[in-house]
Automatic annotation (TrEMBL):
GO terms classed as biological process: monoatomic anion transport; monoatomic ion homeostasis
Native species: Rousettus aegyptiacus (Egyptian fruit bat)
Residues that span the membrane, as ranges: 9-29, 49-71, 83-105, 125-147, 168-186, 206-226, 247-268, 288-312, 350-370, 376-396, 423-442, 448-466
Record's bilayer topology term: Multi-pass membrane protein
Chief place where the protein resides: membrane
Pfam families for this protein: HCO3_cotransp (PF00955)
Localisation per UniProt entry: Membrane
Name of the protein in question: Solute carrier family 4 member 11
InterPro entries documented for this protein: HCO3_transpt-like_TM_dom (IPR011531), HCO3_transpt_euk (IPR003020)
Cellular component, GO, one term: basolateral plasma membrane
């Protein structure tokens, strides 16, 4: 959180496109896990090896920026960008599903619970669950919201909660409830209720409202049921520089190889997310600064590497959603179909600057009250991000066409220009590329995941060399066009 706050502040102040949001993404967490495994296998100091890998990554990123290699990203067509974007959305869904599966394995199918349930008949189990829910509701009504944290964990000197199958069922309901409330509020701007300004506020604040609501429900409404929460491991010295001289030349050379692969991931994701934020349909007025932003990312992560903080780069779908939140959107009707179009965007540094400052202040809220946020709430947040990120994704729209009657197809530009069979061929080829990304990006083998950036780069020759042999170039260009 400290690294994200510091890096976000620097990026908000000095970047060419401040609407881009910086985060530590899942691939970066994977690289950190791989580095930890290498250090354990070869008895290397993790903080030092991590720092050298980050420094090599920053070195290569600086080279990419100095030689204007971001121009290569122009070879990524819209269809390729949408494949990668949909892959990221799928990873959010899988993270939520995996987390919920672990909760069910621990609390619902755990062997330690069989003895608990063996002594109870099905009728008694149902009565026990009803009594538990009834007690929790009465406790929520009779207890002040200002109760101390100790009061949440104990009552009369002993723990007041119990871990059983109720935990798994409640976790599932909390996750789905968070998803429902956040997405409902996100779509509230389309409803006829309240003033348009209030609808816009509720839509923009859908995430914090849903997280706070269901966190309070878990902490107070069901305090007797133990929920899975994140552990907090504080560091004694947050700004401790790694001992760079403790590694051998061989280890430093190995870090260079990892840093090169890491720099390719940074290069692709940073430029790809920036391109999605700068998409023509967003109607941004201010110009782009891909190379300057890439150099700034290199400098920021160089400092984070030295202090052992997590790396950060442009995050999807947070950056496009940030642009969307600052946009003035209108609904228009064409041939009986309603679609949304962005009229203008409030291009400002204040939103990312304020968000980074608030992230820094959130360190003061650890461990309490941030630890009161249960994991199922965050899993619902992942599902919400995945669901909202598929808006305006043409790959998902074309995939939905397979299940629609041809008479109900929307009057998009590619439907008017491309035969239906060619559209379905193109969609099928995109699905195959998506499966290829999933095979490498979601492989259980960590070292196989490390070459994931190479697979993304390999999609360029697939688009320019292989696909034109199957579908005519004019149809490919029409489906890759913006309008």
């Amino acid at each position: 959180m400290a690294g994200q706050s510091i890096g976000g502040l620097l990026y908000a102040l000095f970047s060419g496109q401040p609407l881009v949001v910086l985060l530590t993404t899942a691939p970066l967490a994977l690289y950190t896990h791989v580095i930890r495994g290498i250090c354990d296998d070869y008895n290397l100091d993790f903080s030092t090896f991590y720092a050298w890998t980050g420094l090599w990554n920053s070195f290569f990123l600086a080279l990419y920026a100095f030689f204007n290699l971001s121009l290569i990203m122009s070879l990524f067509k819209r269809s390729t960008e949408e494949i990668i974007a949909l892959f990221i959305s799928i990873t959010f869904v899988l993270d939520a599903v995996k987390g919920m599966v672990k909760i069910f394995q621990k609390y619902y199918y755990s062997d330690s619970l069989w003895s608990y349930s063996a002594d109870r008949t099905p009728l008694k189990s149902l009565l026990g669950l009803g009594a538990s829910l009834n007690t929790s509701f009465h406790s929520a009504l009779n207890t002040s919201l200002l109760a101390s944290p100790q009061g949440l964990a104990s009552m009369s000197g002993h723990p007041s909660y119990h871990a059983s199958r109720e935990t798994a069922v409640l976790s599932l309901l909390i996750m789905l409830g968070t998803l429902w409330l956040s997405y409902t509020l996100y779509q509230f701007k389309k409803s006829p209720y309240l003033h348009p300004y209030m609808r816009e506020i509720l839509s923009d604040c859908a995430l914090p409202i849903s997280v706070l609501t269901f966190s309070l429900i878990c902490s107070y409404g069901f305090r007797e049921i133990k929920m899975s929460k994140f552990r907090y491991n504080p560091r004694e010295n947050l700004f401790k520089i790694a001992e760079m001289h403790s590694l051998s030349l061989k280890a430093i050379s190995s870090a260079m190889g990892l840093g090169f692969l890491l720099s390719m991931l940074f290069f692709i994701e940073q430029n790809l997310v920036a391109a999605l934020a700068n998409a023509p349909e967003n109607r941004l007025v201010k110009g782009t600064a891909y190379h300057w932003d890439l150099l700034l990312i290199a400098v920021i992560n160089m400092g984070l590497s030295l202090f052992g903080m997590p790396w950060i780069h442009a995050a999807y779908p947070h950056s496009p959603l940030h642009v969307r939140a600052l946009a003035h959107v209108e609904e228009r009707v064409e041939n009986g179909h309603i679609y949304e179009t962005i009229v203008n965007v409030k291009e400002t540094r204040l939103t990312t600057l304020g968000a980074s400052i608030l992230v820094g202040f959130s360190l003061l809220l650890l461990p309490v009250p941030l630890q009161w946020i249960p994991k199922p709430v965050l899993y619902g947040l992942f599902l919400y991000i995945a669901l909202t990120s598929i808006d305006a994704n043409q790959l998902f729209e074309r995939l939905a066409l397979l299940f629609k009657d041809q008479a109900s197809y929307p009057p998009t530009h590619y439907i008017r220009r491309v035969p239906q069979r060619k559209i379905h061929y193109f969609t099928g080829l995109q699905i195959l590329q998506l499966l290829l990304l999933c095979a490498f990006g979601m492989s259980p083998l960590p070292y196989m995941k490390m070459i994931f950036p190479l697979i993304m780069i390999a999609m360029i020759p697939i688009r320019y060399k292989l696909l034109p042999r199957i579908i005519e170039a004019k149809y490919l260009d029409a489906m890759d066009a913006e309008h």
